[in-house]
Amino acid sequence: MSVLLPRIVVLATGGTIAGSSANPASSAHYQAATVPVSQLVQAVPALADVARVEAEQVAQVDSKDMMFDLWRMLAARIGYWSAQDDVAGIVITHGTDTLEETAMFLHLTQACPLPVVMTAAMRPSTSLSADGPLNLLDAVRVAASPVAVGKGALVVLNQQIHAARDVVKAHTSAVDAFHSPVAGPLGFVQDTYVHFSRTPGPDQAPRLPVPAAWPLVEIVASYAQPGRVGIDAMVAAGVLGFVVAAAGNGSVHETLTAALVDAAACGVAVARSSRTGAGHVAIPAPPRPAGGVFVSAGDLNPYKARVLLLLALAGDPSLGRDAARLQALFERY
Ligand code: ASP
């Protein structure tokens, strides 16, 4: 008697996993987002031993050009497929450049009970030693695995399983470019063995709605002798929130601090992340943030912190006027 394999849907958005080059020896010069998902699936016959795979081309973009409309479309397609009775899991193929932001968006918005697993590749599909085929197979294995249920949005690359909230791209070209710098990976895939060494943190907060309209939220960096003209211009243009890629443990140059204090006085939300690439930015000691001591984005890098601030300000544009609530938000998600 043959066993019915789980039904897994692959939603493709483009990226290097769907990239091609006329020169297979080149892994740096190629065109991203050119190969249709049907062809990517066909190139991995072993998928047929793992799942009944169905593929949908949601978009075909280089993820450097990611837009909120595509995030919304992705959320809608996840909603559609996860409502089908016999779908066991969803895999999303994506470019590596902004994967960590889309992953954060999915972490914050998806209450989907099925595994939602992102994957990508550092080398184009035509490259010698392309990493996409194994990453796709591993992602489908994870999406089809009962042990992945209830673990939140996941990212599978280079045989590692990461929490979508934690994972970042930390190298320009290496195949092991993805890390979870503070928490570490959740587990690994070794051939048919899908193993979770730990479960993601106890985030019980409700998922945030996908906005109909997105506020302006920007990232500014602190470095030697910064100017304040950019901040002042952005406030005048209606920016509702800033994430500061601050130095070290959240230190902000006094020139930027002065500009951000003025912005905060107009109700703009300001959160400090770190430009170091790893670690938790110290939370201001009680009494909770006031004056030039802005809230901490915790261990979220500036790009991930911006996604949280975008979604939070979309739901409550006045959040910038309440530093204690803003701090609580970053401690919650
Ligand atoms: N520029 C590509 C993208 O993000 C890079 C990649 O996927 O590795 O779509």
Written description of the protein model:
This protein folds into two domains: 7-196, L-asparaginase, N-terminal domain (Rossmann fold, 3-Layer(aba) Sandwich); 217-332, Rossmann fold. The chain is of the alpha/beta class and 333 residues long. The strands form three sheets. Strands 2-1-3-4-5-6-9-10 form an eight-stranded mixed beta sheet. Strand 12, helix 6 and strand 13 (269-274) form a beta-alpha-beta unit. The protein has eight helices and 14 strands. Aspartic acid binds at residues 14-16, 32, 62-64, 95-97, 120, 122.
Summarize the structure.
Helix content is 26%, strand content 20%. The chain is α/β, with parallel strands linked by helices.
How much is the average pLDDT?
96
Question: How would you sum up the major sheet?
Answer: 8 strands, mixed
CATH fold assignment of the largest domain: Rossmann fold
Q: Give me the CATH architecture of the largest domain, please.
A: 3-Layer(aba) Sandwich
Family: Belongs to the asparaginase 1 family.
EC number: 3.5.1.1
Domain L-asparaginase N-terminal: 7-199
Keywords: Hydrolase
Question: Features of this protein?
Answer:
single chain; 333 residues; alpha/beta; Rossmann fold; eight-stranded mixed sheet; four-stranded parallel sheet; 8 helices; globular; binds aspartic acid
In terms of topology, how is this protein built?
Blueprint: E1 7-14, H1 37-42, E2 52-61, H2 68-82, E3 87-93, H3 99-109, E4 116-119, H4 132-143, E5 154-157, E6 160-163, E7 168-169, E8 178-179, E9 187-190, E10 193-196, E11 217-221, H5 229-236, E12 241-246, H6 254-265, E13 269-274, E14 295-296, H7 302-315, H8 323-332
Parallel strand pairs: 1-2, 1-3, 3-4, 4-5, 11-12, 12-13, 13-14
Antiparallel strand pairs: 5-6, 6-9, 7-8, 9-10
Helix pairs in contact: 3-7
Aspartic acid (ASP) binds at residues 14-16, 32, 62-64, 95-97, 120, 122.
